[in-house]
């Protein structure tokens, strides 16, 4: 499985906190943070997910020179394939769990180890057969210490979820 | 500030409106910050005509992130030991989300003190959109 590097930067933390509507100064104001119990800026709890920015081949970011499945002149830039969309339903996020061995801070240089976990199936009235697959990501810091363990569960639906 | 066991009791809860009338721009903001540019969350044409949904909807992780503020505002900065959710219903532009966290246990493990919380975020119709649990470090 791939190992990615994830440098944790103050401006990235600030932008991420803004995007989730969190104006807590612990995420952007170093002077404020220095006077708190933590003593420095930390990242919000779901920030580890932003490691996607540093994954060189991340499927959900347009890659230079490659077709993109979003719309342009037509509703999609690629021919429909089972990889992009299974019966129109495609992949959705079913669960996400984080264990914090310590909270991230600007200057951390993380290394990620990603491995697949279990897969299972379930029937659903609203979306047909659901295929779940688990991914476990371990984030280690510049000293080799495990700082975050993340467990994500993705689901591919047979058809779009009915609402 | 870090909570103390003495100020907590099982069943104690905190509720907050987390976002009112969720804007599409916030979905774009989250895409840019997180790096998840799935067109389902900003590209109406793709989402309707290719994916078959009525329109763009929020990243599950945006709802988890928005809900995280409820937790950290209560347990204090840097105190979460774990946080996990299931995404049970989609969140749409225009939704107003309300989160509730409730104390389910106050406990000691290897000399460290923790509070366990259950979490539910619901939309304006009262339907849950994420449910989950969290554990935070507390003082004795």
Name the strands of the widest sheet of chain B in spatial order: 1-3-4-5-2
Distance between the termini of chain B: 14 Å
The shape of chain A is globular
SS-based class of chain B: alpha+beta
Number of domains of chain B: 1
CATH names the topology of chain A as Thiol Ester Dehydrase, Chain A
Number of helices of chain A: 2
Element-level helix/strand string of chain B:
EHHHEEEE
Task: Give the class of chain A from helix and strand content and strand pairing.
Answer: mainly beta
Can you identify the CATH class of chain A? Alpha Beta
Do you know the CATH topology of chain B?
Thiol Ester Dehydrase, Chain A
Structure description:
The complex is a heterodimer of chains A (163) and B (140). Chain A is mostly beta strands and 163 residues long. Chain A has one domain: Hotdog Thioesterase (Thiol Ester Dehydrase, Chain A, Roll), CATH 3.10.129. Helix content of chain A is 9%, strand content 34%. Chain A has helices at 10-19, 30-34, and strands at residues 3-7, 91-100, 109-124, 128-140, 146-157. In chain A, strand 3 (109-124) and strand 4 form a beta hairpin. Mean pLDDT of chain A is 91; it is low at 82-89. Chain B has 140 residues and is of the alpha+beta class. Chain B has one domain (5-22, 59-138): Thiol Ester Dehydrase, Chain A, CATH 3.10.129. Chain B is 24% helix and 36% strand. Chain B is built from 3 helices and 5 strands; from the N terminus they run E-H-H-H-E-E-E-E. The longest helix of chain B has 16 residues, at 60-75. Chains A and B meet through helix 1 and strand 2 of A and helix 1, helix 2, helix 3 and strand 2 of B.
């Amino acid at each position: 499985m791939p190992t990615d590097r994830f440098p944790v930067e103050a401006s990235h933390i600030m932008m991420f906190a803004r995007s989730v509507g969190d104006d807590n100064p612990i995420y952007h104001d170093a002077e404020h943070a220095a006077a708190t119990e933590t003593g420095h800026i930390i990242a919000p709890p779901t920030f580890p997910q932003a490691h996607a920015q540093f994954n060189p081949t991340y499927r959900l970011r347009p890659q230079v020179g490659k077709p993109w499945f979003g719309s342009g002149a037509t509703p999609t830039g690629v021919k429909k394939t089972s990889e992009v969309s299974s019966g129109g339903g495609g992949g959705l996020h079913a669960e996400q769990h984080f264990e914090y061995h310590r909270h991230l801070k600007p200057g951390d240089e993380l290394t990620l180890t990603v491995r697949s976990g279990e897969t299972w199936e379930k029937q659903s009235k609203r979306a047909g057969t659901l295929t779940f697959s688990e991914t476990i990501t371990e984030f280690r810091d510049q000293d080799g210490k495990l700082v975050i363990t993340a467990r994500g569960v993705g689901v591919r639906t047979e058809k779009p979820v009915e609402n | 500030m870090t909570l103390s066991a003495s100020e907590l009791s099982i069943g104690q809860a905190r509720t907050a409106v987390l976002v009112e009338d969720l804007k599409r721009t916030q979905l774009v903001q989250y895409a840019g910050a997180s790096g998840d540019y799935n067109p389902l969350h900003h590209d109406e044409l793709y989402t309707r005509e290719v994916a078959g949904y009525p329109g763009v909807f929020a990243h599950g992780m945006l709802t988890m992130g928005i809900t995280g503020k409820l937790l950290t505002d209560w347990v204090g900065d840097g105190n979460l030991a774990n946080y996990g959710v299931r995404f049970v219903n989609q969140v749409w532009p225009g939704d107003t989300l309300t989160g509730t966290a409730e104390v389910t246990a106050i406990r000691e493990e290897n000399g460290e003190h923790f509070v366990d919380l259950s979490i539910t975020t619901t939309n304006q119709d009262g339907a849950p959109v994420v449910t989950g649990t969290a554990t935070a470090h507390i003082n004795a």
